[in-house]
């Protein structure tokens, strides 16, 4: 732990007090300032890591990357809650400090997945050094609630560092060029944080002299086309012949069975990826939006993992099915502003509520077929989806508000359904589209295909 980092987490008063007279105790506002600095680092790290999820190729690595992005977000949530109990400026409305965002953006514009993980180990180690330094400054009684928060956060340290470190070796161990690229990137990220720790602005207006950014093309975060192992998880090509979701029988060898539900779950990495673009791209929303969104996208990864695991338990291989990526096919800066709220409303107001009917029927039938595990999959899935629909009702209108489109949750829901009806070509007039959108079970029957519940 270097002395610069040590000073960096104190506020001005504390630094002056320390220089003037020896006082090793932190006042509540000093603790709040230290937690605020750590909050921004966790928050920006969650953005970098979740932004990298679509740029990671292998299924297992993608899932674990999403898991860690979610954990960074949850650490930020714990820090946010504790900061709110202490005096000092509220985090609620604050934007991320520009120099913090820049440090994380510089460190995450890596030329390859392995290089990103090499930089990630630098950021992780440094962040956890910060937690450790703070722990040893806190009073065990006065700061007990803060120490409890730090104790929970520190629990993830070893698993994260070990896993991130392993990724570098998997990618670069037998290829000298990759190993050199990874080492060079890690050196650069080291320099970024060295500059940050020595120069982090303590007054507004001061700037950091950053190291020269390497002349490499960034592979992530948020690539316009997501990285994917298409041999293990073949991509479905939309031919236009089938419009209703999952109607095309060539997508799944289980299209005529209730087990199709597991296949549908296995395709949810696409939804998780789309939400990663939203997490990375959405600026200046209330902090609870990011806490809910990270939970939502992590749940979609879990649904995908549970689907893949059950298919494999049943003797199928993932290559017998077709999948969808969640990438928008354009760079974030080239996307229409509506892409974000429209995607989010489509997911939370159409796909997720429509999935309840299938999931409820599937759970009942799986119990009848004496397949308790499959039934319980559907039951957890429903519990999660119910929460996601609630998230959508709160945050969908907020996202529309950001593009100056003031809309209620009910209007948003109707519009999302009408967009889906238009995609399906299911109505010849606006009047007819509105009528179909109002009849919810009928609308869902159009939007997504029914399963053959009687065939196990
Ligand atoms: Fe899901
Ligand atoms: Fe969901």
Determine the mean pLDDT.
91
Strand content: under 5%
Residue stretches low in confidence (pLDDT < 50, at least 5 long) are: 1-8
Radius of gyration: 24 Å
**What overall form do the CA principal axes indicate?**
globular
CATH fold naming of the largest domain: Ferritin
Order of helices and strands: HHHHHHHHHHHHHHHHH
Query: In this structure, how is the largest beta sheet organized?
Result: none
Q: Give the terminus-to-terminus CA distance.
A: 59 Å
Walk me through what this model shows.
With 456 residues, the protein is mainly alpha-helical. It has 2 domains: 3-199, Ferritin; 249-447, Ferritin (Up-down Bundle). The protein is 64% helix and 0% strand. The model is unreliable at 1-8 (pLDDT under 50). The structure holds fe (ii) ion (2 copies). Residues 299-300, 352, 384-385, 388 line the site of one fe (ii) ion (FE2).
Layout: helices, strands, pairs:
Elements: H1 3-8, H2 12-20, H3 28-52, H4 59-84, H5 98-108, H6 113-135, H7 144-154, H8 157-172, H9 176-199, H10 260-266, H11 269-281, H12 287-313, H13 339-368, H14 372-402, H15 409-424, H16 430-438, H17 440-447
This protein binds fe (ii) ion (2 copies).
Residues 268, 300, 303, 385 line the site of one fe (ii) ion.
């Amino acid at each position: 732990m270097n002395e610069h980092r040590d000073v960096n987490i104190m506020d001005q008063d504390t630094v002056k007090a320390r220089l003037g007279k020896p006082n090793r105790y932190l006042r509540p506002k000093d603790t709040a300032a230290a937690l605020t600095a750590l909050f921004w680092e966790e928050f920006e790290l969650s953005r970098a890591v979740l932004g990298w999820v679509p740029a990671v190729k292998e299924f297992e690595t993608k899932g674990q990357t999403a898991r860690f992005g979610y954990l960074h977000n949850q650490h930020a949530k714990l820090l946010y809650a504790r900061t709110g109990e202490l005096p000092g400026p509220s985090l609620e409305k604050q934007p991320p400090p520009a120099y913090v965002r820049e440090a994380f953006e510089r460190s995450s514009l890596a030329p390859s997945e392995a290089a990103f993980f090499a930089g990630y180990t630098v950021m992780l180690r440094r962040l956890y050094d910060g937690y450790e330094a703070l722990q040893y400054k806190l009073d065990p009684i006065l700061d007990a609630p803060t120490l409890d928060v730090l104790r929970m956060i520190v629990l993830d340290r070893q698993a994260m560092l070990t896993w991130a470190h392993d990724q570098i070796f998997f990618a670069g161990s037998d290829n000298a060029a990759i190993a050199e690229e990874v080492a060079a990137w890690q050196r650069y990220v080291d320099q970024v944080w060295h500059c940050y720790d020595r120069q982090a602005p303590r007054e507004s207006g001061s700037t950091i002299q950053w190291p020269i950014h390497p002349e490499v093309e960034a592979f992530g975060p948020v690539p316009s086309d997501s990285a994917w192992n298409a041999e293990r998880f073949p991509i479905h090509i939309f031919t236009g012949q089938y419009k209703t979701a999952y109607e095309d029988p060539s997508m799944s060898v289980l299209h005529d069975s209730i087990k199709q539900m597991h296949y549908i779950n296995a395709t949810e990495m696409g939804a998780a990826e789309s939400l990663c673009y939203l997490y990375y791209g959405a600026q200046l929303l209330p902090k609870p939006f990011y806490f809910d969104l990270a939970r939502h996208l992590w749940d979609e990864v879990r649904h995908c993992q549970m689907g893949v695991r059950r298919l494999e338990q049943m003797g199928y291989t993932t290559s017998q099915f077709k999948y969808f990526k969640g990438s928008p096919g354009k760079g974030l800066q080239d996307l229409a502003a509506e892409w974000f709220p429209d995607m989010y409303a489509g997911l939370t107001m159409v796909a997720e509520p429509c999935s309840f009917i299938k999931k409820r029927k599937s759970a009942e039938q799986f119990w009848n077929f004496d397949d308790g595990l499959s039934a319980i999959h559907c039951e957890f899935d429903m519990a999660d989806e119910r929460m996601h629909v609630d998230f959508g009702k709160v945050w969908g209108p907020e996202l529309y508000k950001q593009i100056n489109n003031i809309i209620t949750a009910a209007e948003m829901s109707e519009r999302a359904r009408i967009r889906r009806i238009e995609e399906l070509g299911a109505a010849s007039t606006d009047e007819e589209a509105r009528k179909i959108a109002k009849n919810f079970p009928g609308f869902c029957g159009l939007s997504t295909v029914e399963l053959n519940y009687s065939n196990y």
